[in-house]
Amino acid sequence: MANKKPEWNNAMKNEGLDDMTLLSKVTNDQILDNLKKRFEKDIIYTSIGDVLIAVNPFKQIPIYTDEILEDYVGKSRIELPPHVFSVAEQTYRSMINEKENQCVIISGESGAGKTETAKLIMRYIAQVSGEKGSTSNKKVEHIKSIILETNPLLEAFGNAKTLRNNNSSRFGKYFEIQFNKTNEPEGGKITNYLLEKSRVTWQLNGERNFHIFYQFCKGATKKEQDEFGIYGPENFAYLAKGNTLDIDGVDDVEEFQLTRNAMNVIGITAQEQHNIFKLLAAILWIGNIEFKELPGDKSQVSDQSVLDFVSQLIEVPNNFLKTALEFRQMETRHGNQRGTQYNVPLNKTQAQSGRDALAKAIYDRLFNWLVLRINKAMENPNKGLLIGVLDIYGFEVFDKNGFDQMVINYINEKLQQIFIEFTLKMEQEEYVREGIKWEPIQYFDNKIVCELIEGKNPPGIFSILDDVCRAVHSQSEGADQSLIQRIAVCKANPHFDTRGNAFCVKHYAGDVTYEGPGMIEKNKDTLLKDHLEILQMSGNSFLTALFPDEIDQDSKKLPTTAGFKIKTQAAELVSTLMKSTPHYIRCLKPNDVKKPNVFEGPRVMHQIKYLGLLDNIKVRRAGFAYRTLFQKFLERYYLLSDKTCYAANMIWKGDPLSGCRAILASQNVDATHFQIGKSKIFIRYPEMLFSLEETRERYWHDMASRIKNAYRNYKSFQEECSNRIKNAFRNYKLYKVRCAQTIQGYYRAWKQASPYFDMRAKNEQLIQNRKERNRFSVLSVRKFFGDYLDVRSQGYFLDAMAEGRNEEVIFSAKCQVVVHPILSANKLSPRFLIVTKQHIYTIKLKQKKNLATYLLDRKIPVSDVNAFSFSNLADNFIFIHTAQEFDLAVVCDFKTEIMALLNQQKGTQLPVNINQQIQYFKKKSSNNTITFVKDEMHKEVFFKKNQAHIATGLPASTPINKVRKNPSVKNTSSGVPKQIPKFSGTVPKPSAKPMGKPMPQPGGGPKPMAKPMAQPGGAPQKPMAKPMPQPGGAPMSKPLPQPGAGAPVGGAKPMAKPMPQPGGGPKPMAKPMAQPGAPVAKQPVGRGTPMPSQPNGGPSKPMPQPGGTPMAKPTPGAPKPVAMKPKPQAPSQPTVQMLALYDYDANQPDELTFKEGDVLTLVKKVDADWWLAQNTSGTKGMVPSVYLEVQK
Ligand SMILES: Nc1ncnc2c1ncn2[C@@H]1O[C@H](COP(=O)(O)OP(=O)(O)O)[C@@H](O)[C@H]1O
Ligand SMILES: [Mg+2]
């Protein structure tokens, strides 16, 4: 926070020293130099430790903006450049922290800027205290506005243009603001001192009366003008004495509005305002009463009409008023006995002076009433802490100085005393008391001057004045002479001397010669009895209330003198100030011409000297910036040490001093930076104190930010939770859809496969325990596809089938058959095997004139088939025994399917023989035996000399579910996710992902579900790439059907390579496909067209085709690839358009991928959930109906 300084500060870097305590040489010249350097750069504030020095710039400098004010809030003195806001901040903050009353003492000559400074302090406090902008506490806001509005009001009535200052305060004031427990202003009080009432009747040339008269004369309403006889100021004698009616740059009419507004804010009623203006008018009109000289040293009011108007305004009968003005009531006295009263006529001068006294008395009382009225508005019965701001006229020296100047200078002496007491004397005394090591500083103590003025024994000037007043009583003749004689006793004081009719006092601020004549009169300050009488008979209660004085002046009681009053007030003020912590602002006046940018060296030097800035610096440098009681220090800084504080609570149980030491030790404070006294701890440098403060602040700040962070975390946790719940719910919904889809899929697959399941179950029994198992055979039940070669669309097959071309094909596949060449050994030869409802065909490919030609090899009526044989090993041989001359020995992946279909066709279960040797008829009545031998050398069937070499398969007893349980298979087997996948965190709209991919799971947790969901048939980790034909014949026994091999099984691995399609070339699959595993024994799997050839997860090789040649490759030797005919299209239906609501990625090869917004054409509603559709490029496939919206 310390590095954020107001802009203007940066510009003033290196422009003299901010704090003159740091001057290299402590001399008055250095001080002057520093101030001058800064003044020239418009840096008007400089400090000496806590004391602020302000040099009046006599121009507006933009350093009082709200932004700059805000900058000072909460900052310690050294954090920002010296400023009146900084003093205000320290004052306010000390009040809060120390719980003690504070005061700001602003001193300086007239025009040095005291009042402006006081206003800035008020503004700062009003602005930073209480809740900003809140109107929750009406009272606080009200008090604040009164505090701010008293300025324009009191300035109107108490300020005037003087030669030194266009807005010179002609009274002193001490403004106390009272704070409530939450440190908001809740009340206030003004004490006013010595209004310069002589100004009401007389001004120096170039000066004005109090502002309010000019404002009133220029701004009065028509009604007021008529009622009070108000005209322009030039018409009133009292306003024209100084020949100055206006002030440059000041609009009195405008100011009058502000004054009236201030009255309203403060709550001065319309009636009260009326009374005030009536009295103001009366004063003006009193001033216009002229006297003419009459013979016999008498005088007479010149213009009766003026007198009449005045008597009308003050509501006193005109004859009484006339008498009071023209005569003085006298009384004969005989010792203590009262005599007779008689009227003594007044000469013109006496009459004029009496008239002026009347006007001054009224104004003085009016001003006091105003202050009391403001106080009433700010009154608060509660007791609270106070901040007082003292703005009192500064030291004055004129060519001729009288009683007023002496009083003013006396007050300034008293203030200087307090300053010395606080900054110099008390400080040093305290060091002695506390036993602090310390080098005493010599300084001038002005106590002796105060004694000279206020002392009783020996009598001071005020005492002598009072004595003389008493002695001369109502006679003024000879009084002045008497004073000069008696005051000579003061010569014993070295600060006093007499000069003829005058005397000289050596003030701390300089020598001042006071004129003797007039002093006694001024000191008496008693209202003429005649005047008091007529004012008290006024019909205007407002006026009579201003003069509640006792009429009887003959009592033994001594009348109070002005000197006595001022002494009492000064003593009260001093005692108030001494009860508060003082803050000093010393205002300096750079020139006497009120001009900006003029720095008169000697003028400033004079002020530097009498303000004692040099001593101030010296004491400061030698002393300690801060001291406080051990207990107080502990209470304030216990947060700083973990020995004294735990979780912001004070835990110190020992004595306060040891606690203080623990705190200082925790902060590594250098031993030379503090001293321990008897009851107090003394901190030498303010910087150290500020650093303690900052650490303390930071503690709270850290606490606050911890709470803030915790709250923020809590909020974001809340949000995160709600997001998660939302996501989880969405996932759950999606999951439900997926589950339903999965179940539907399985159900569909099961529906399709279930007939074969039964078929297989039957066959299974025949094979069980009798034949070693091919891994693929035991994996699952698959749907029998039958016509793998799509014979109907292959004209060359149909051609080869000749007259059988119209028969219904129930099965077709590539295979190998055992051929029996006449002169050579039996061997395997590729064939196409086609089974129709009527016949079994084997078709071979022959090269004829470089053309591949399909020729019918054999044709066996289905009705002739009467048995099947299988080896007992894990091969793909099937021997189809017939009633014909010879049998058919076939090697085919789909041996079980062949058997099953033929059985079905025949409507019976033909016998099955399983043996190690299979015998069959290779020709009419010619037997051939193939022996099946185990041979691990050959992973694929090796057929030679009627021996089929077969690698060991799974044990014959292997049930299908046993395979599924095989741990090596377990984790790769499922097509449906084997574990419920991770929750990804973001769930988009339902877009069908491949089933093998993670499926969002309700709950969204990262944990896998303990039990995999619906885990259908497993797949071997390493698929056996090719079926192995086996050599060797076996004696024909009962052939048993086998479960379908190469059932479509799910796997997590994508199919990287093209998957051969039955009867077609390799068709690349664009997307990795994860297929549902084939269910074993129970659950049929696979929704779409089964893929007979690709074992689960088969990563690399195309599935070998019966006959040993992958379909992908052209048949060896065949010059022309066999062209595939397009499949016949489904008959067209009336078009129904469907709009895709979401993206869908095909999960199965028979499905169609589409994007949200695509338009598809309905081909067929296969069932409620799955429809056959065609996209715009003509591709057909199954689509989930829930993703689509049928367009009307
Ligand atoms: N900080 C300031 N910035 C600008 N002008 C100032 C400042 N302080 C005083 N002045 C000018 O000096 C004049 C006299 O100031 P004021 O406070 O009335 O003096 P004092 O109260 O000491 O007699 C003001 O009217 C104003 O024009
Ligand atoms: Mg002032």
From TrEMBL:
Assembly and binders: Myosin I heavy chain is single-headed. Dimer of a heavy and a light chain. Inability to self-assemble into filaments.
Compositionally skewed regions (Low complexity) per UniProt: 1007-1025, 1043-1056
SMART domains xref list: MYSc, SH3
Protein name: Myosin IC
Pro residues bias: start-end ranges: 1026-1042
Location of the region described as Disordered in the Swiss-Prot/TrEMBL record: 957-1134
Range of residues in the leader sequence: none
Family: Belongs to the TRAFAC class myosin-kinesin ATPase superfamily. Myosin family.
UniProt key word Transcription: no
Domain annotation Myosin motor: ranges: 15-697
GO cellular component: cell leading edge; cytoplasm; macropinocytic cup; myosin complex; plasma membrane; pseudopodium
One of the GO biological process terms: pseudopodium retraction
Coiled coil: none
Pfam families listed in its UniProt record: Myosin_head (PF00063), Myosin_TH1 (PF06017), SH3_1 (PF00018)
Binding, ATP: 108-115
PROSITE patterns in the record: MYOSIN_MOTOR, SH3, TH1
Region annotation Actin-binding: where it falls in the sequence: 570-592
